[in-house]
Amino acid sequence: MDLALSDDQVAILDAIDSLTRPFAAASLHDSGFALPDAPLDRALAEGGFLDVGFDPDLGIVTAALVVAALARLPQAVEAAASAVVRPLLGDDKPRPLCLVEEGREHRPIRFLAPGATVLMVGASDVSCFIVAADQVRAEPDALHAYPMGNLVAAPVDRARLALSPQDVLTRWRIALAAEAAGLLGAALDSTVAHVTDRQQFGRPLATFQALRHRLAEAQVRANGVHWLAMKAAATLDPADAALAALHAQESARLAVYDFHQFLGAMGMTLEHPLHLWTYRLKALIGELGGRGGQALVAAEALWG
């Protein structure tokens, strides 16, 4: 696998950086647990950044790079499903794209709102429908840094798609891992900035060896999640995707605890932006059956 970015990928990431820079210093006042940003979402869609996966010359690796870059923003943008999974559906489906496992549709769903496309993945088929206003109940007080909604009822006559559930789930796991990589990187940067500035016992917290060791481990984990996600995006292999998602969920579980502990009392408030990344990670930890679900899929794919 060539680890060097292509000229096109470098240009796309540079363009994302330029476009999102004015949005990066978002105000935390009155933002609550989630920080959606409709103008940012619109600018990304109009710029074509969420459609790079449709271009065979760019492919899903480039889409995963876009997802990881956007996950580093404090805002929650529906990029992962649109960039990585939506190329399987075609570009005629409206965003946001919400991914749901059949049988788990009554759990809170990320970005679910009237007009969204719901892609429901069952054991043997894949279906989709456009959400009507009477089919969704918003969850503004959900303890996640995503806009969340509950599906009141899924229509029985939803459209059945000629898609393999395994193909959809593989891309879902790639999207999850790529998003987790960006969230872990941003949360780590935020934590490092705090412990570098925060003084205790006459010196910065970052000079204490115990913190440095655990921050170094978090950096190694974040790097590992990133490269496993990119490998899975390159191969589109179910085992690679399951292993990437497994490592992402396990790393998130450990890192989120450490990051909030290192912030002390600030880690228990909404005054610091850390929760905008870690609360999203907490939501991702439970998707697709969690770590146990990914481990079972990886074992089945590798050894049958």
Q: List unreliable stretches of 5+ residues.
A: none
Proportion of residues in β-strands: 5-15%
The topology string of helices and strands comes to: HHHHEEEEEEEHEEHHHH
Largest sheet: number of strands, sense, barrel closure: 4 strands, mixed
CATH architecture of the domain at 165-303: Up-down Bundle
Q: What's the shape? A: globular
CATH superfamily of the domain at 165-303: Butyryl-CoA Dehydrogenase, subunit A, domain 3
Task: Just give the CATH class of the domain at 165-303.
Answer: Mainly Alpha
What is the CATH T-level topology of the domain at 165-303? Butyryl-CoA Dehydrogenase, subunit A, domain 3
Task: Work out the helix count.
Answer: 9
Measured distance between first and last alpha carbons? 25 Å
Could you report the average pLDDT, rounded to the nearest whole number? Answer: 90
Coarse structural class:
alpha+beta
**What is the count of β-strands?**
9
Radius of gyration: 19 Å
Helical fraction: 40-55%
Strand order of the largest sheet: 1-3-4-7
Describe the structure.
Helix content is 50%, strand content 10%. The protein is an alpha+beta fold. The strands form 3 sheets. The protein has a 4-stranded mixed sheet, covered by helices on one side. The chain has a 3-stranded antiparallel sheet with strand order 2-6-5, with no helix packed on it. It has a two-stranded antiparallel ribbon with strand order 8-9. A hairpin with a 2-residue loop joins β8 (199-200) and β9. The protein is globular.
